[in-house]
Specification:
Length: 277
């Protein structure tokens, strides 16, 4: 008995597995830096180590959440609507983004003014001859809302080519350089071009613009091994350190300094949208 007790006392205590805090990569932002204060908050709230994981795209993030490979994630709207029906994926908080920023978070479809295209119907009718550029698989404002808009015409247009530019700015640059005929991107770079270079902007035409889009919420894998309730409470008590760091990693959350509760009514109208063929 004594030997058994001594052996148990001498055995090293196993370190609990790290909680995986994740999001998706985007060239414009260092999201490892943006997630670092969140990972530290999760460590304090859970008493467990964390590791940061960056997936290649919003679509890849949604799949990782559904497979249980990420425990806590900062999503965009596209990743969230794809993953929210998966087992155990629970939204726990949303960055409280200033109203002026939320109003600017929209998607647009742009064409060259000399293309003769002026409507979604015209795009659909001529899709087979057109080169289409979007941002990333699963990008909300640079792929998914445009896909839904194009399908709303009654068809899923099959473009001559469809490629991903990687960033919203790159999608706009492809159109300006004549390397694509239709560009799907967030409204921000388009507004910036209109302000900085009205002459160049006048060579393009906006054929569609979405309503304002909510940012993606923070989600947690709701299992006994993941302390979602404790992380939720810590986020709502955050005095700005975590919120500000995250807000600097996404254009649609710029200026947020705190978290608010998840409101299902803001997200119910949005459904997972398959990519265009």
């Amino acid at each position: 008995m004594l030997l058994t007790l001594l052996a148990a006392w001498a055995s090293p205590v196993e370190t609990p597995p790290a909680l995986r805090v994740g999001t998706y990569h985007y060239p414009r932002y260092d999201r490892s830096v943006a997630l670092a204060p969140l990972a530290a908050l999760v460590e304090r709230a859970s008493g467990r180590p964390t590791e940061i994981r960056l997936l290649d795209t919003p679509e890849a993030l949604a799949k990782a959440l559904c497979r249980g490979e990420i425990d806590i994630a900062m999503t965009n709207l596209g990743a969230f609507v794809e993953a929210r029906s998966c087992p155990d994926v629970r939204p726990i908080a949303v960055l409280s983004t200033p109203p002026a920023v939320l109003d600017r978070y929209r998607g647009v479809l742009l064409v060259r003014r000399d293309s003769g295209l002026a409507s979604l119907d015209a795009l659909g009718a001529r899709a087979g001859d057109l080169r289409y550029t979007e941002v990333l698989p699963g990008s909300t404002s640079g792929a998914l809302v445009q896909s839904a808009a194009l399908r709303s015409t009654g068809r899923a247009p099959v473009f001559a080519t469809r490629r991903h530019a990687g960033t919203h700015e790159a999608a706009l640059a492809e159109l300006l350089a004549g390397r694509t005929d239709v560009a799907a991107l967030a409204e921000g770079p388009w507004r910036q071009l209109q302000a900085d270079d009205p002459g160049t902007a006048a060579t393009l035409l906006q054929v569609w613009r979405s309503d304002p889009l909510p940012p993606g919420p923070l989600v947690c894998r709701d299992q006994a091994s993941v302390p979602c309730a404790a992380v939720h409470r810590a986020l709502l008590a955050d005095r700005g350190e975590v919120a500000v760091a995250l807000s600097k990693g996404w254009s649609e959350t710029e200026g947020a300094v705190r978290f608010g509760a998840y409101d299902p009514a803001r997200y119910d109208p949005f459904q997972a949208e398959p990519p265009l063929p």
